[in-house]
Design brief:
382 residues, alpha/beta, TIM Barrel, eight-stranded parallel sheet, two-stranded antiparallel sheet, 14 strands, globular, binds iron/sulfur cluster
Length: 382
């Protein structure tokens, strides 16, 4: 397993992590068997968004006696009413469901307490101008949640939340299809046929700015929907008309700035294995560029996707890293100290580029790398 820092929380989490969808409808013994398997592979990070009491109870039983081996991400504002999951901003329901959650999970704290599913600006104001954020802060002071997070599908709203400086972790939907789409409060539009009917160009700037803001502020992203709900794995269902592998989807998400982990909703040990295969996959197996560059109606030209195909550089420069750090400074409008430090730590710097052009012939996305190195050298001073 590969482990990564979750932003500035101090938590070290497995890059391949577990969503809880796969545990729905399973008996306690099956949940325990799946978790045993996951632990055996090094997975230590789990998201439990669902308020289903049976599910939480089964997971709690499976974690019993080994809770400290897990970083648990639970959610605030999900309740269980009339046998159904409910998203709520009601204070009493939120508090009651939180207490139940800890009891069902057999723990007295969550490592990350996610404010659940904030996609509209109106809801953002309800949460941040009202009681919900204060509840989250109070629970943190009490030690019942260690870090405050927020989940969203909308990059504009997620950015507003990150800019408050009050959240430390963002759960966000990241995959190459969503990344093409402009922000919208209706999550269904991310997958609607009409959203893919016209030619789409490159990463949506609002999404890119969000990832870069999180990186510069030390807000760790954990990813949901890396497989697009499974549709990206099927040529028939994917808007790309071409299937990606789990490893390619994971590689794409894990190479976005600030992303620490992908929550994969595995339904079986075999699906856990397919996700964990990312850890030992070869560069060719991880290569998502091959899927994306040949697609009709999608143009990624001129935009660095951090795929690493340009390597090796004659001068030893890690071109993808230089581009990532440069883009961070553009997003910030300045060179933040942390980015300057990361850049300084590179073995070779952009100013060492001898303009041989070898990398450009290998870049599948048509990035003008010589120009990019010159701009980066000017920005960082070397
Ligand atoms: S410059 Fe091109 S090949 Fe290199 S990381 Fe960026 S997109 Fe990939
Ligand atoms: S053009 Fe510059 S960055 Fe590209 S391979 Fe040559 S030296 Fe390296």
């Amino acid at each position: 397993m590969k482990f990564r820092e979750l932003g500035h929380t101090g938590l070290r989490v497995s890059a391949v992590a577990l969503g809880c969808e796969g545990f729905m409808q399973k008996a306690a013994a099956e949940v325990k068997a799946d978790l045993d398997h996951a632990i055996g592979l090094g997975i230590n990070f789990i998201d439990i968004y669902s308020s289903n009491p049976e599910l939480r109870t089964n997971i709690g039983a499976a974690l019993d006696g080994r809770r400290e081996r897990f970083v648990i991400q639970g959610h605030l504002c999900t309740a269980w009413e009339n046998g159904q999951y409910l998203r709520t901003r009601d204070v009493q329901k939120t508090l009651r469901s939180f207490d139940e959650q800890l009891r069902q999970l057999r723990t007295d704290y969550l490592d990350v307490g996610m404010i659940h599913y904030v996609d509209s600006e109106a809801d953002f104001r309800t949460v941040f101008d009202g009681e919900i954020i204060r509840i989250a802060q109070r629970l943190r002071v009490e030690g019942r949640i260690r870090h405050i997070g927020l989940s969203s599908h909308n990059p504009v709203v997620a950015r507003m939340a990150v800019e408050t400086g009050l959240i430390e972790v963002l759960m966000f939907s990241v995959n190459p299809c969503y990344d093409l789409q402009p922000p919208d409060e209706e999550v269904e539009k991310l997958w609607a046929d009409e959203s893919y009917a016209h030619t789409l160009h490159n990463l949506d700037p609002a999404r890119e700015r969000l990832y870069e803001l999180c990186e510069s502020m030390g807000v760790g992203i954990d990813v949901m929907k890396a497989y697009g709900g499974g549709d990206l794995l099927s040529a028939d269902n994917s808007p790309f008309g071409r299937a990606m592998t789990p490893v390619q989807c994971l590689e794409y998400a894990l190479t976005r700035p600030a992303v620490a982990a992908v929550m994969v909703g595995c339904r079986s040990c075999a699906e856990i294995d397919a996700a964990v295969a990312w850890c030992d996959a070869s560069a060719a197996e991880r290569d998502y560029a091959s899927v994306m560059t040949g697609l009709e109606k999608f143009s990624w030209q001129g935009h660095c996707m951090y795929c690493g195909h340009c390597a090796p550089c004659t001068a030893g420069i890690d071109v993808a890293a230089v581009n990532k750090f440069y883009n961070l400074t553009v997003a910030q409008g300045e060179v933040p100290e942390t980015v300057r430090e990361h850049y300084r730590a590179l073995a070779h710097h952009a100013s060492e580029c001898v303009a041989c052009g070898g990398c450009q012939t290998r870049c599948p996305f048509g990035v003008k790398i010589v120009d990019a190195m010159r701009r980066a050298a000017e920005r960082f001073g070397y």
